[in-house]
Structures are given as C-alpha cells and as structure tokens.
Amino acid sequence: MGNALGGPEDPVTAKCTERGKSYDQKITFAASGMKGLRATMEDKHLYTSEIKIAGVERALTDHSLFAVFDGHGGDFTSGYAAEHFLDILSRQPEMKKYAELPKIGNESRSDVPGIELLRKALDGVFSELDVQLREVQQKKNDAIDSQPPQDPNDESLLAGNGQMYEHSGSTCVVVLLTPSHVIGCNAGDSRAVLRRAGGTLPLSFDHKPSEVSEKDRITEAGGFVKARRVDGDLAVSRALGDFVYKTNDNMPANKQKVIPNPDFVLYPRCDEEDEFIILACDGIWDVASSKQCSDFVQTLLLEGESDLGVICEEALDTCLERNSKDNMTILIVGLPGMKMASSSLQIQNAMFGRRAMRHSIINFQPNFLSRNLGIMSASEATKGEPISPSSSASQSSSDSRDNGFASHLKNTVAQPMVAA
User: Fold this and answer.
1) In Å, how far from its chain's centre is CA 347?
2) Positions in the chain short of pLDDT 50
3) Digit-coded pLDDT (tens) for 277-321
4) What is the pLDDT, as a whole number, of residue 164?
5) Smaller CB count within 10 Å for the chain: N or C?
C-alpha cells in the first residue's frame, strides 16, 4: 500500500537489502525494500533465525520467523508492529507451553497439540498488537489535541495546531518455520507463497472487502463495500490499526468492519521438495501472480544467481518496470531443497550478460525491455505468462552487485532484525 504518489518520472529506486542465514536450519534469506513511486516508504519487515520465549532460558534455535508489514496512511502502525511483534510473541503463554513439549513423538511440538499452541500464540500477537496500537495512537492524538489551536478551519483529519491525527493501519503476513511445519498467517493483502517441487503453494489468502464472508461482516458491522473498498475507502478488510473502521461498541474486535484476526495456512515440511518461500507486499502482487513471482525467482537461481539479495532487487526493478505504483518489499527464504545452477562459468556468464544488457542497452532504449523480453503491464499480470528474468532500466546505486558486494551471505546467525 502507501499514500500519495510521487513524481512518476522520478521513481525512487534506492533499495535497502539485507541478508542472513542459519547453519543449523540450513536456510538462507534476504529482504529488499524500495519506495518506488510513492511519496513515502511505509513498508516494514522483520526476520529472526531463533525464537526467544519469556521465562525460558534457551531460545528455539531450530525455529525462524519472517514477516512483512505494508502500512497505509503513514508508517506508524507498520513500524510499531514490526518493532514489537517478536516481544509480544515471546510473552504469549502458549509459547512457554510449546517450549515445554518434547520435540518429537505423540503430544509433541510437531504433533497437533504443539501446532495448535503456535496458532493460538500467533493469533494472540495480532490481537494484542491491535490493542496496544489503539492505546498508543490515542495517546498521540490526545497529545496533539492538548496543544494550542492555530487554525480552526483545518480539515477534519487535522488538529487545530495543524498536526495530522494518527489513523494509520497495516497489513501483516508472517511465516513461521518449525523443524516439522511451515506456518503462514496474514491479515490483509500482503502475501506469502511456498515453492515446492516446482509448484507454487499459497501460505496466505488476500483479505479483500469484496469477498463474500468479508463483505457480510462489514455489512453487519454497519459498513458497506463500494468500488471493492470498505466504506468506499480502504482496500483491505483485515488490518492492524485502522481504528476508524473499528468503532462499533456493540461488537467484539473480530466482528468490526475491519478486523486484525489472521487466517492460517499450514504445511508439513519436506526438505527434499521445499525450495523457497516468498513474502511480499501488494506492490509486488499487484503486477505479478504468485506463480509468476515464484517462477521468476527460480529462473534467476537456475541462471546461476546465488545471492538472494540480488534476486530480491531484480524482482523490485522488474515490478517497477511492470508499472507497480506502490512501495515494494520482498523477502525470500531459501530452503534445503532450493535448486540452483552448479556451473561457476554459467553463474558468471548469466550475471554478466543480464547486467551488461541493463547498462548498455536499456539505458539507451527504454522500451527495449518491454518489447523484447516479454515484461507485461499490470493489466496483464493475471494472464499466467512468466515474468522475464530482467529488470527495470532504473538502476539503484545501492544495488548489492553494483556496489561490489560478493554474492555470499553473512556467516553469522541472524539476530532479530526490523527494517524499513
């Protein structure tokens, strides 16, 4: 999501790219974000290769968690959620019970009781985050109201002193990796997918106001759906924050027009077949289907690119070329079954050829990419054709390959990280 559009002739292509790995879990991961055509960057993300639990001495070093938050109406909600998600998760009573279970066997972490505890814990994080956000947003607005008024004719969303009231919201998609399962949960239209044995499996489902069950709840809460938006305004039916849509005092939090409650998708892990996971905001999914994005990543891997950070950057540039007009964030997790090129010569030639084409041809012929490499517009994104493994004519000065970063991931266990 995002707020106002910036100048379309000057998209902001600078990227923030991070990498990490876990030797114990045999996974690598990277994330990259780009402001794109929006006036501000409202996406956030987090990752950790261990789960800490309050009151438990040892962290779960064989678990990892990844999340993307897509803010709208400002970055306060997405930033708060990203900053506090892991701390709230660590304090959920179900997490301590989960840690006390045996790792394998009946009634274990990998059995139904363990998975149900994780589901309840994650659901509790979404609910608690929303409660906290209501309080902190209200405090911010009360502080604005307490200041002397300057202009009584300000618009309704502005306080008398000219400061903007805090009314932001955020989607949230989370993937939790345990030794036995892949657990996806989300509220909103940020999305996650699992690449398994060459196919693309959903780890989340978008929450749109036009969906029958969502529309029924919105109507029962006193709202309406117009132009596929809640009350003709908000494009998602579930989100953190957005308290202007959660004002019916006669209904619980999970019955409001917009609710924070996530849905869950669960798969048992298969190390031989599970290749990688993608989490991204709708700036990616607006111009690419789940299969297209999954195939794009796999194409670059088979071309020889081993740096997931560079692949993230290529995805951002390609989606910009496909006319994405939103902030964009993508996070890729490489799993033990990830298929990559084996020839070092193939790796060098693939990267040299693609980068050389970008710099020597695209800069002089802006339309060459779309004409000759099959890159589609947003309206074509749902037709099931593959995304070309090439990227936008705009090249960020912060792109990892062009700044001379080697295609090696960090050799340290990644600590919890929150980033814009």
Assistant:
1) 28
2) 2-8, 156, 159-161, 358, 361-415, 420
3) 999 999 999 999 999 999 999 999 999 899 999 999 999 999 999
4) 80
5) C
Please provide residue 48's backbone torsions phi and psi, each rounded to the nearest 5 degrees: -155, 140
Distance of alpha carbon 325 from its chain centroid, rounded?
16
The model carries a pTM of 0.82
pLDDT of 183: 98
Residues 6 or more apart in contact with residue 53 via CB below 8 angstroms: 59, 60, 90, 95, 96, 98, 99
Q: Which residues contact 74 (CB under 8 A, 6 or more apart)?
A: 3, 40, 42, 164, 166, 167, 168
SS3 content of the chain, % helix, strand, coil (to 5): 30, 25, 45
Residues contacting 255, CB < 8 A, separation 6+: 217, 220, 221, 248
Phi-psi region of 73 (alpha: psi -120 to 50; beta: other; left: phi over 0): left
| Enclosing H/E stretch for 123 | helix 112-145
Q: Whose CA is closest to 30, among 404, 399, 403, 402?
A: 399
